[in-house]
């Protein structure tokens, strides 16, 4: 499968929303498998943080740095179609400018009744900054 990352809503000013979409293509060969996603952020200092993930069961797992914003609903991670994931920052701040990546993981049922990771595709980084700059 292939993964395409795009910026669907770009914040013009601090406080505006930002939305990124991660679309999985050619997913038909997954059959009984499931998809999970991790949203990653890399800042200017080039340290990478996990914003949040959806695991193989669709559970939301917030990253350490973003836990309070995810729990407060200021950052949402959703699946809009079986193979489309969205990351939405409700109020974008200066500190959110940087590079975003989405990593999509394919899981298949194992013989023991749990899920086994079979593949992971990480998109090239997408630079996000305010549209007015």
UniProtKB/TrEMBL annotation:
InterPro entries for the chain: Ig-like_dom, Ig-like_dom_sf, Ig-like_fold, IgSF_V-set/TM_domain
Ranges where the Ig-like domain occurs: 15-105
Transmembrane segments: none
Protein origin, superkingdom: Eukaryota
Keywords carried by this UniProt record: Disulfide bond, Immunoglobulin domain, Signal
Protein name per the record: Ig-like domain-containing protein
Protein species of origin: Cirrhinus mrigala
């Amino acid at each position: 499968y292939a993964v395409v990352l795009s910026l669907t809503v770009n914040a013009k000013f601090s406080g505006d929303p930002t939305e990124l979409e991660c679309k999985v293509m050619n997913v038909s060969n997954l059959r009984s498998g499931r998809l999970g996603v991790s949203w990653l952020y890399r800042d200017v200092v080039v340290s990478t943080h996990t914003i949040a993930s959806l695991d193989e069961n669709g559970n939301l797992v917030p990253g350490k740095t973003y836990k309070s914003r995810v729990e407060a609903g200021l950052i949402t991670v959703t699946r809009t179609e079986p193979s489309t994931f969205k990351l939405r920052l409700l109020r974008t701040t200066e500190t959110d400018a940087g590079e975003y990546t989405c990593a999509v993981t394919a899981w298949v049922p194992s013989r023991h009744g749990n899920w086994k990771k079979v593949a992971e595709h990480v998109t090239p980084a997408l630079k996000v900054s305010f549209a007015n700059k």
